[in-house]
Automatic annotation (TrEMBL):
<feature type="domain" description="HTH lysR-type">
    <location>
        <begin position="1"/>
        <end position="59"/>
    </location>
</feature>
<comment type="similarity">
    <text>Belongs to the LysR transcriptional regulatory family.</text>
</comment>
<dbReference type="InterPro" id="IPR000847">
    <property type="entry name" value="LysR_HTH_N"/>
</dbReference>
<keyword id="KW-0804">Transcription</keyword>
<dbReference type="Pfam" id="PF00126">
    <property type="entry name" value="HTH_1"/>
</dbReference>
<dbReference type="GO" id="GO:0006351">
    <property type="term" value="P:DNA-templated transcription"/>
</dbReference>
<keyword id="KW-0238">DNA-binding</keyword>
<dbReference type="GO" id="GO:0003700">
    <property type="term" value="F:DNA-binding transcription factor activity"/>
</dbReference>
<dbReference type="InterPro" id="IPR005119">
    <property type="entry name" value="LysR_subst-bd"/>
</dbReference>
<dbReference type="InterPro" id="IPR058163">
    <property type="entry name" value="LysR-type_TF_proteobact-type"/>
</dbReference>
<protein>
    <submittedName>
        <fullName>LysR family transcriptional regulator</fullName>
    </submittedName>
</protein>
<dbReference type="Pfam" id="PF03466">
    <property type="entry name" value="LysR_substrate"/>
</dbReference>
<keyword id="KW-0805">Transcription regulation</keyword>
<dbReference type="GO" id="GO:0043565">
    <property type="term" value="F:sequence-specific DNA binding"/>
</dbReference>
<dbReference type="InterPro" id="IPR036388">
    <property type="entry name" value="WH-like_DNA-bd_sf"/>
</dbReference>
<dbReference type="InterPro" id="IPR036390">
    <property type="entry name" value="WH_DNA-bd_sf"/>
</dbReference>
Length: 312
């Protein structure tokens, strides 16, 4: 078997996570996939995968080889498409990873519009709030929100996001309206579980000083939509990104609170692996998202203006 076929089998094996799944995708026997891997490792003189009966992980050499193999196959794929179609026509499969709440409410409408504009583009979309390994899972681009901790990827900011403190009119009628951030210590908090300190809410006061308040946690959830539903039902106060809350505020289901303070700010980013070049379909998709969302996305346009200070 030639080197290119060995590379294809190896890459598919890593992406599938098991020889059985890889064999099904490649229409090969399970034993053939395992045999090809052993032949590849023997030819290279190094172990590429740690294998047990239940799991399979890349060795350090295996990860480096896998990254190069993915690039080789992408380059070959682009070269062949370039010969058969116009350079301006985007085509091929685009593998995208995105968080659930933003994916459903904002990314899916953007993807469908992009696919209408480029009918030859195929999309695999994985919506999950976990952090994915772009290289190991064969992801072309991941949408991430918040702080970026992994410098091994290239990041491009797509749009800003502000946090908003809000509660339902019913909750405020029963428990009163907080007048300062410190008042939140006496309210029921609806908190996002995937933060390091879910009940510690960060903000900047009028002088620009960075502050925080500890909020009692009534409900902790790993999904912002769940917290929004709980807030609308009058269960407590939340501090969530504007793209999750702005529609409910627009409809009067949630009331923005403490708007004279600037709550936690973050960004929405497109992340992709460091490669020699970015494929036209990935670059085109990222450019499209940047233009669609931009510096003034719809979820930021509804943010209430801070109250004007009275002139004494």
């Amino acid at each position: 078997m030639n080197q290119l076929e060995q590379i294809r089998i190896f890459v598919e094996l890593v992406r599938a996570g098991s020889a059985t799944q890889a064999a099904n995708r490649l229409n090969l026997a399970n034993s053939a996939v395992s045999r090809r891997l052993k032949e590849l490792e023997a030819r290279l003189g190094t172990q590429l995968l740690h294998r047990t009966t239940r799991s399979m992980t890349l060795t350090e050499d295996g990860r480096a080889y896998f990254e190069r193999c993915v690039q080789i196959l992408d380059d070959l794929d682009e070269a062949e498409r370039g010969l058969s179609s116009r350079a301006s026509e985007l085509s091929g499969r685009l593998r995208i990873a995105a968080p659930w709440s933003f994916g459903v409410s904002h990314l899916v409408p953007a993807i469908t519009e992009f696919m209408h504009l480029h009918p030859k583009v195929l999309v695999d979309l994985d919506m999950n709030d976990r952090r994915v390994d772009l290289v190991a899972e064969g992801i072309d681009v991941a949408i991430r929100i918040g702080e970026l901790g992994d410098s091994s990827y290239i990041a491009r900011k797509l749009a800003p996001v502000s946090h908003v403190v809000a509660a339902s009119p019913d909750y405020l009628q029963r428990f009163g309206r907080p007048e300062t951030p410190d008042d939140l210590a006496h309210h029921q908090g609806l908190c996002y579980a995937n933060l390091k300190a879910p009940g510690q809410w960060l903000y900047f006061d009028q002088s620009g000083q960075r502050c925080s308040v500890k909020v009692p946690i009534r409900l902790r959830a790993s999904n912002g939509d769940a917290l929004r539903h709980a807030a609308i039902a009058g269960l407590g106060v939340l501090c969530e990104p504007s793209f999750i809350t702005f529609q409910a505020m627009r409809q009067g289901l949630l009331v923005p609170l403490l708007t004279e303070y600037r709550w936690y700010q973050m960004g929405i980013y497109a992340l992709y692996p460091q490669t020699r070049h970015l494929s036209p379909r990935v670059r085109g998709f990222i450019d499209f998202l940047s233009q669609r969302f931009g510096d003034h996305p719809e979820w930021e346009q509804y943010l209430p203006e801070p109250p004007q200070k009275s002139r004494g």
